[in-house]
Amino acid sequence: MKLMIWGGNLALTGGDIFAFPDWKEVIRKVGQYGFTPLLSTKIPLKEDDIYFLKESGIKFLQFSLDSIFPSTLQTMVRVKEDYIDNVKQMFEYS
């Protein structure tokens, strides 16, 4: 993996980084260059993922919740029935 830096800003775009299989390696590399990325997701993260982010110096995570109604979420973003429960658990880990 190559990471090229031009100037003082770094933007990771093109979708949810947590959908990328090697997202932890990307976060490690970004940190090696002294950057702290702003991360955004709709994916409820597991306890070990939250721990990894904390250990990597990530202090903020933007989470998008499109609805609190399971039927609406299943239609909009095709999530499983336990999505809201997983979101609640994620916030308990943080």
From TrEMBL:
SUPFAM superfamilies: Radical SAM enzymes. This is Xylose isomerase-like TIM barrel domain-containing protein. It comes from Phocaeicola dorei CL03T12C01. The lineage of its organism: Bacteria, Pseudomonadati, Bacteroidota, Bacteroidia, Bacteroidales.
